[in-house]
Amino acid sequence: MQENKGKIIIITAPSGSGKTSITHYLLNKYPGLCFSISATTRSPRGSEQHGVEYYFLSVEEFQSKINEHAFIEWEMVYEGKYYGTLKEELERIWNDGRVPVLDIDVKGAIHVQGEFPGKCLSIFIQPPSVEELKRRLESRGTETPESIATRVNKASYELSFNHHFHHIVVNEQLDKACAQTEDLIKEFLGW
Question: Annotated binding site for ATP: which residue ranges?
Answer without folding.
Answer: 13-20
